[in-house]
Amino acid sequence: MSQPFDRSCTAEAPGELDNDLEEFWVEDPWKINLSNNLSSYERNRFFLNGRGKEFYEISYLTGADSDGDGRAVVAADFKNNGQLDLVIRQVGGGPLLIYENGFEKGHYLKLSLNGVKSNRQGIGSRITATVDGNRIVREMYPVNSFRSQMPNLIHLGLDGYDKVDELEIKWPSGDIESFRNISADQHIVIQEGRSEIQIVVPGNPFLPAISSSQKTP
User: Fold this and answer.
1) Whether residues 115 and 76 fall in one domain
2) Is the dihedral of CA 94, 95, 101, 102 positive or negative?
């Protein structure tokens, strides 16, 4: 394969093509994707995080080992049940693949931020959740991959625990706030500098819930 830097040039085939090997040649290499699919049908891979100690390759077991030319993947709670599903977009006209989360359901907490001194969506904040002595650390940043972007929220999987003992937020402004005894299985919104937690209820306005907070300058 040769790709000249001059977009207006054409290149002749260097020799006779072997049709049995499905060889082909395009005079204008800049237009190769318009008439040919360069996918080698590599299968997608899916890895399960084993509690931060190792990863398990479960592509075949889950049916996620599609041989389509997958390019964009988004993990989000599409059914609003606390479980992250996967959507995969394929190039070249392949189908849109949706993988439903079939794992055993555990407790969770979803978190959105509203910056005041910091940027409006709290991007760059560092979130530390303490659950039964274990620390879960996340950063508020909408992950970008090839032609895809995750929702700008934090999803915490809490396993069998029904509350977060302490939730600490370090805002980009440098302020640190902490909230205690937050019930699981809900979507909350925290505004910078405010001691109340707002609860997201689909179809309804925010419902304020008072929670203890300590702010460290």
Assistant:
1) no
2) negative
Burial 35-64 (b: 16+ CB within 10 A, else e): eeeeeeeeebebeeeeeeeeeeeeeeeeeb
- From residue 182, alpha-carbon distances to 114, 179, 216 in Å are 18, 7, 19
Pairing of strands 85-90, 163-170: unpaired
Per-residue confidence (pLDDT) for residue 18, from 0 to 100: 87
Q: Are residues 120 and 38 in the same domain?
A: no
* Residue 80 to residue 78: CA distance in whole angstroms: 6
Last residue of a domain, one of 72, 104, 136: 104
pLDDT per position as a tens digit, 137-182: 999 998 777 777 888 899 999 999 999 999 999 999 999 999 999 9
Structural domain harbouring 90: 10-104
Q: For the chain, what is the domain count? A: 2
